[in-house]
């Protein structure tokens, strides 16, 4: 997370909304032999006070001593920014390359949940993301044969991260003038490398000066 305050001004509700929209992050804890990490989908509670996840029984985090401190890191669009994009060297001298990105860190306490909470968690998780695929008829676990879902659920376990701290970094060239930032955003838009590049350029253009 970049320490520059210019990149840390986005309100917490906006960072939580971003995390909810992405819905996928890297969960990390300190294990007995060093850091442990798992890449997981998650379901964020309405008020952003907790995130529910599931892990394979064989995952080292699932077998760690809990409850314990954990970090869920969510990354959004990102890209290399060339100093040439800011303008002519005579006009904007002594610039250096950088990397623009959005990231949200959710810190808190990770705890195991009772087995009976697994099915509601899975249904809520799939309902959230199926709802984004409309007008497709949403998939639901009711489409599974009676014994298939319980059999598959035996391979995973439910967990909850009780969120105590939300940190968001939106590094979008806020330390540049609007004119220079627009030049960089325009150059970024024509890269045509990944879908998230245009998203990053749009967010750079939407920056509001403090």
Describe the protein:
The chain is of the alpha+beta class. The protein has one domain: Electron Transport, Fmn-binding Protein, Chain A (Pnp Oxidase, Chain A), CATH 2.30.110.10. Helices cover 25% and strands 33% of the residues. The protein is built from 5 helices and 7 strands, in the order H-E-E-E-E-E-E-H-H-E-H-H. It has helices spanning 12-22, 118-130, 148-153, 178-189, 195-205; strands at residues 24-31, 34-41, 43-44, 50-56, 68-81, 98-112, 156-171. Strands 2-1-5-6-7-4-3 form a 7-stranded antiparallel sheet. A hairpin with a 5-residue loop joins strand 3 (43-44) and strand 4 (50-56). Helix 4 packs antiparallel against helix 5. The longest helix has 13 residues, at 118-130. The two termini are 20 Å apart. The mean pLDDT is 93.
């Amino acid at each position: 997370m970049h320490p520059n305050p210019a990149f840390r001004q986005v309100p917490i509700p906006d960072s939580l909304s971003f995390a909810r929209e992405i819905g996928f992050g890297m969960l990390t804890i300190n294990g007995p032999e060093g850091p442990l990490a798992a890449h997981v989908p998650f379901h964020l509670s309405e008020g952003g006070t907790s995130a529910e996840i599931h892990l394979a029984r064989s995952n080292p985090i699932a077998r760690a001593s809990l409850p314990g401190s954990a970090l869920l890191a969510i990354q959004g669009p990102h890209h290399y920014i060339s100093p040439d994009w800011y303008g002519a060297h005579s006009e904007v001298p002594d610039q250096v390359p950088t990397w623009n990105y959005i990231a949200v860190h959710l810190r808190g306490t990770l705890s195991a949940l009772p087995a009976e909470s697994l099915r509601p968690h899975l249904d809520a998780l799939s309902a959230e993301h199926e709802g984004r695929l409309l007008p497709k008829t949403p998939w639901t676990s009711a489409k599974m044969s009676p014994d298939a879902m319980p059999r598959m659920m035996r391979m995973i376990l439910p967990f909850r991260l009780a969120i105590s701290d939300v940190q968001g970094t939106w590094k979008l060239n806020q330390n540049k003038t609007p004119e220079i930032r627009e030049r960089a955003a325009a150059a970024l838009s024509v890269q045509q490398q990944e879908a998230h590049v245009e998203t990053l350029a749009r967010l750079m253009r939407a920056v509001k000066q403090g």
